[in-house]
Design brief:
By secondary structure, this protein is an alpha/beta fold. Helices cover about 40% and strands about 20% of the residues. It is globular and about 55 Å long. The termini are close together.
């Protein structure tokens, strides 16, 4: 098969990220974002050959209209591009225990994704809409589902179980699943190459740090623990999510402070994290700017972010035994040398020493080791989830 282009779709509840990826080398031919679905100001923006373009979508557009525009007004305007497509790859947030690897989408798979909607109510229903719209637009192409949760399905029961009545796991599927698996998988493979080790002999701690953030312990190339839980709300301090809290806080706010359950959950997911502590923004760049101005709440937000992350990383020495490298990735992990310095300073008990020059150079897509000679290794590896999705899509399509 000579053609290696894949249309990658990442459908959210009110937005859709898309890209056309060369599966051989990861090159982005087109990338873009359709957003503000079901609102009067629905719009789409994209980049092709270095040129940025944008336009409004018809008022109250959603997934089907956005995909139609992408196909008819962007892809088909590029002469011969659509004919080079091998498959459409879909990022799926939650596969539960049903899906442990990427799969070709058929009716049974689509039904399985819908059944996992209770575990990711904001995401999986949107994924289903995106899949159906893509099937309609490209009926002859193989459609592939790539699951955020799949990489974490190698966790042992002692890591993924909650200490709750066992029947909640067996009957209601209450357990830890983890997210960002596609990113953690990518940086695991890239770290093995950088360390000149076989993936099967690579032990890393992968820190995917963005508006959503998670850390994974990877032993011999397989995930053995991760910070997110049954949903993406658990674990690290994030842009607007609280991460780990005492669950009794929810009962206290409802029964003693007059909150509704819906109000509490909205607060924990959309008003907490960096935004809640700083009172400024969920965008880390804004937090950094205010920190430099001496804003104490911005400084506190950064310190809490780094402290929680360092504690998680330190705890993963337990399942790993040997740490070949700590890997920083994601928007914050790839670009904030200050956060990396704070985290590694908190891990000085393990001997980590930052090389300031290397650390400050590893931004804006640059990969590299950021620790001093003689120190245990920490490195930056820019993630590329879309490339993983494209590669899996080509692999599965070629077997059809």
């Amino acid at each position: 098969m000579n053609n290696k282009l894949v249309l990658v779709l990442n459908c959210g509840s009110s937005s859709l990220k898309f890209a056309v990826i060369n599966a051989d080398n990861g090159d982005e031919i087109i990338s873009g974002l359709a957003e503000c679905f079901n609102l009067p100001d629905a719009r789409i923006k994209w980049k092709i050959a270095g040129n940025k373009k944008s336009t409004n979508l018809p008022s109250h557009s959603a997934h089907s209209a956005a995909i139609s525009y992408i196909v008819e007004q962007i892809i088909k305007k590029e002469d011969g591009l659509a004919e080079q497509f091998v498959a459409v790859g879909h990022r799926i947030v939650h596969g539960g225990e049903k899906f442990t690897q990427s799969v070709v989408i058929n009716d049974a798979v689509l039904e399985g994704i819908e059944e996992c909607s209770s575990l990711a109510p904001l995401h999986n229903p949107a994924h289903v809409l995106g899949i159906k719209a893509a099937q309609s637009a490209f009926p002859a192409l193989t459609q592939v589902a790539v699951f955020d949760t799949a990489f974490h399905q190698t966790m042992p029961a002692k890591a993924f179980m909650y200490a709750l009545p066992y029947n909640l796991y067996k009957e209601a599927h209450v357990r830890r699943y983890g997210m960002h698996g596609t990113s953690h998988l990518f940086v695991t493979d890239e770290a093995a190459k950088a360390l000149n080790k076989a993936v099967s002999d690579t032990n890393i701690i992968s820190a995917h740090l963005g508006n959503g953030a998670s850390v994974a312990a990877v032993k011999n190339g397989q995930c053995v623990d991760t910070s997110m839980g049954m949903t993406p709300l658990a674990g690290l301090v994030m842009g607007t999510r609280c991460g780990d809290i005492d669950p009794s806080i929810i009962e206290y706010l409802v029964t003693r402070q007059g909150y509704s359950l819906e109000g509490v959950m909205d607060m924990l997911q959309k008003q907490s994290g960096l935004l809640g502590i700083s009172g400024i923004s969920s965008d880390f760049r804004n937090i950094l700017e205010e920190n430099e101005k001496g804003n104490k709440r911005a400084t506190l937000a950064m310190e809490m972010f780094s402290y929680r992350l360092a504690k998680y990383i330190a705890s993963y020495a337990v399942p790993l035994g040997r740490i070949d490298a700590i890997v920083f990735t994601g928007g914050i992990g790839e670009n904030s040398h200050l956060i990396r310095t704070q985290v590694l300073s908190l891990l000085s008990i393990f001997g980590y020493q930052v090389d300031p020059e290397k650390n400050e150079a590893a931004i804006l897509g640059k990969q590299g080791i950021i620790t001093a000679d003689g120190s245990p290794i920490a490195m930056v590896i820019p993630t590329n989830e879309e490339w993983v999705i494209a590669q899996d899509s080509v692999k599965l399509a070629s077997n059809q």
